Amino acid sequence: MQTPAQDIDYVESLELPDEPAGARLESTPVEFGSAQEVATVGAQLAEFSEAVPAAQRAVVADCLLLAQLAADKATAMNDDLQAWYDQYLKVLKALGWLQTSMDFKATEVSDDNAGVHQAILPVLTAMLGPVAASASMVVAVLKGLQEMNKDDPWITLFDRSSSHARGAKFQLGFVDADPTGDTVKVQLMALAIDAQRRVTQVLFFKLAQESAKLAVAQGELSVGAERLNGIRQAVADKVAPFVVDNIGKIDI
Fold it and tell me: How far apart are CA 60 and CA 174, in angstroms?
């Protein structure tokens, strides 16, 4: 296990993409609350349970964003989606997150007219269980997408971050904490769309009509609250130029 100083050195050493034009280093971070809520974190929809304190939500979101940005940079010349996920998980593990196995498996889509958001609902329900799925805000968002404006700012943000040279990649994360608050856990679903071209309007993309393949991996990540607190400021400083363009709340 790395020391706090080594954790900070690692964060500072990570190479990230060029900062966005006009990046606001003094930008106001997203204000997380204490109730159940869902946010976009780059190419991820992250749902936080009431058990996760607001202060921990911010550092979790920053860690998830940092891993995505570092993976973007490391695989900029590689269009292999699996290579991107390997880098994403590598960064999270280096930050102290423990990971269960995540093997990607192809998922069949029976409805030729199904968009991605419809195709993944059965898989998501199976992962969470019917009771948890019925109470999930992410599930509610996916079910309600047809009535939403496809140019809604959070959808535009999510699409930009998810799009990949050879399809698209995105994650659904369900963040919870143990009763003592000592450990934060993320139940993670990672998805990859192999379309042999860049995909836009990712959640509305129709897989079968485009002869695209959807692969899904599931796993769990966990980290000690003390480890998170030790890297909080270093991670926040590292992702500061990217926060405004990548992290936002979803109101449903």
Answer: 11
User: What pLDDT shows up at residue 27?
Assistant: 54
Provide the angle, in degrees to the nearest 10, between the axes of the packed helices 81-94 and 54-74.
130
Q: Among the residues of 95-224, which ranges form H helices?
A: 116-119, 121-128, 130-134, 137-143, 153-162
Residue 112, helix vs strand vs coil:
coil
Q: Are strands 44-48 and 98-99 parallel, antiparallel or unpaired?
A: unpaired
The sign of the dihedral angle between the CA atoms of 222, 220, 239, 23 is negative
C-alpha–C-alpha distance, residues 236 and 11, integer Å: 10
Q: Does residue 129 come out as left (phi exceeding 0), alpha (psi in the -120 to 50 range) or beta?
A: left
Write out pLDDT tens, residues 71-121: 999 999 888 888 999 999 999 999 999 998 888 888 876 666 678 998 899
pLDDT, greater one: 211 or 98: 98
Domains of the chain: 43-239 (3.40.198)
Backbone region of residue 181 per phi and psi (left: phi > 0; alpha: psi in -120 to 50; beta: other values): left
Strands 247-250 and 167-177: unpaired
**115: DSSP letter:** B
Q: Token pair of 56, please?
A: 């921990």
Which tens digit of pLDDT belongs to each residue from 153-195?
A: 889 889 999 988 888 999 999 999 998 889 999 999 999 998 8
> Residue 188 phi/psi, 5° resolution?
-115, 135
CA distance 187 to 17: 27
The candidate with the shortest Cα–Cα distance to 191, out of 128, 123, 90, is 123
What's the whole-model pTM score?
A: 0.93
Gap between the Cα atoms of 188 and 117, Å rounded? 16
